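Encode chain A's predicted structure.
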Amino acid sequence: MDSALLSKVLTDRIKGIRENPALQALAQLDEPSSNEPRVTQYVAYTDFTTAESKRQTASIYVFTPYMNLDAHQHPIVEYQTQLMFHFDPWTKSIHVSVLETLGAASKLAFFDYQNHGLATVALQALIGLGRKNGFHNIDGVVSSFDGHDDLLRISDVLQRVGFTVQTDPENPHVGEYSYGLSA
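Encoded structure for chain A:
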């Protein structure tokens, strides 16, 4: 794939994000590399805002042009990874929506299963967003009904960025995870 074309598509997507007042870019990387499968051209962005005190759900999105262009060189999908979360501005906590690996594995973990790293980017962006806005903790639940291996894979993704994951030996398909943001 032509790295100049990928850079142009990424630049156009970042420009679109910056022009949209409902979105904000959190992290971006445009370092074309032939070191596949690691994705080195992406933008992580969010629809989170502290201005809307009544709205308490937001998402982190990660877009890459990698493996995402149609025959006319336009992006096929707007983002490859979405991490939806609920936030409580009064208790300063973030709760990530349930991550399930039902079916072909969690969308959050899909690109990390392929060693592309987009789930890691999404989680790191969430941690940064939480710190920047004075949140104290992030938590959530992960479940896997496809087998214990899928739960282990997504637990590994979470632990690599610093989350603590706890599972119950009597229910090996469900785990709780948390991350303390306090200084």
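Residues 100-113 have pLDDT under 50 and may be disordered.
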